């Protein structure tokens, strides 16, 4: 085991000597679950589900085990050396609008795969910090899948697991469905466009909670000048009754028009032309 990849107890960089590859070694404390056979069985079911998930936009899950002595669950996943989408976006300030759409399609395709299960697999804590990037190929994958569900079980039943800035209003009420992931995706998109964490104007989680549950959108939404981008984000963060599914968003004109013209545009546009339409042009 090598240096930690993130703060806290959940992820380390490791080397798989058998396969000869670097991997991410994740640990979650589950002391309470180990004392309850019903919760422990549910935990095993959750981990088993993670092993069965196979999709090009979902982080590969290699192995897992429960360490009863140290009261934690360990699972091994693939590692992306370009880091998270948030880190990648901070490093690359000027990216073509088509890259935004390409990333969006990949994330939505991953969510569609998860949500198409019966019952739907819900991430619960989607954000740019757990979407990972392969910079060489422009590939993005959803990671940390299952951590929110496992942590939810490991804590008091009334606790809410997630990141306040990305949590849909209904998630606070604990009566929700897979559309909470679409809301979180919309907030990810808003962050990518504005370079701001949603609700940066709030100084604590309580203020965010009050705004979210009152239907007040992040102040950064007003900074998005491109109306097509803004409208697409609004479709994602609308009230749950009006929010579109991953399947519906994938055929939205905002994504489809670009996808259909991409092959033609790629053949006729010069490198100089590619520098236009960057994310910075979307802001006031």
UniProtKB/TrEMBL annotation:
SUPFAM superfamilies: Protein kinase-like (PK-like). GO terms for molecular function: ATP binding; protein serine/threonine kinase activity. This is non-specific serine/threonine protein kinase. The keyword ATP-binding applies. SMART domains: S_TKc. Residues 1-255 form the Protein kinase domain. Its EC number is 2.7.11.1. It catalyses: L-seryl-[protein] + ATP = O-phospho-L-seryl-[protein] + ADP + H(+); L-threonyl-[protein] + ATP = O-phospho-L-threonyl-[protein] + ADP + H(+). Keywords: ATP-binding, Kinase, Nucleotide-binding, Serine/threonine-protein kinase, Transferase.
């Amino acid at each position: 085991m090598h240096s930690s990849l993130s703060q806290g107890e959940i992820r380390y960089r490791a080397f798989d000597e058998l396969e000869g590859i670097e991997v991410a070694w994740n640990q979650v404390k589950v002391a309470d679950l180990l004392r309850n056979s019903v919760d422990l069985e549910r935990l095993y079911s959750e981990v088993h589900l993670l092993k069965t998930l196979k999709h090009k936009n979902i982080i590969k899950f290699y192995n897992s085990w429960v360490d009863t002595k140290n009261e934690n669950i360990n699972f091994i996943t693939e590692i992306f050396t370009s880091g998270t989408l948030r880190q990648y976006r901070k490093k690359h300030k000027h990216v073509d609008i088509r890259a935004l759409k390409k990333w969006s399609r990949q994330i939505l395709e991953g969510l569609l795969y998860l949500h198409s299960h019966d019952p739907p697999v819900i991430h619960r804590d989607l954000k740019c910090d757990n979407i990972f990037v392969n910079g060489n190929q422009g590939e993005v994958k959803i990671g940390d899948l299952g951590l929110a569900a496992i942590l939810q079980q490991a804590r008091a039943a009334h606790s809410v697991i997630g990141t306040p800035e990305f949590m849909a209003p209904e998630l606070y009420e604990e009566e929700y469905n897979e559309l909470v992931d679409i809301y979180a995706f919309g907030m990810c998109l808003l962050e990518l466009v504005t370079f701001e964490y949603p609700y940066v104007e709030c100084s604590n989680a309580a203020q965010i909670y009050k705004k979210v549950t009152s239907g007040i959108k992040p102040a950064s939404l007003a900074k998005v000048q491109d109306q097509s981008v803004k409208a697409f984000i609004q479709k994602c963060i609308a009230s749950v009754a009006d929010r579109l599914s991953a399947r519906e968003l994938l055929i939205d004109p905002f994504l489809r028009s670009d996808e259909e013209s991409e092959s033609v545009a790629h053949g006729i546009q010069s490198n100089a032309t590619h520098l236009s339409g960057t994310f910075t042009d979307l802001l006031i």
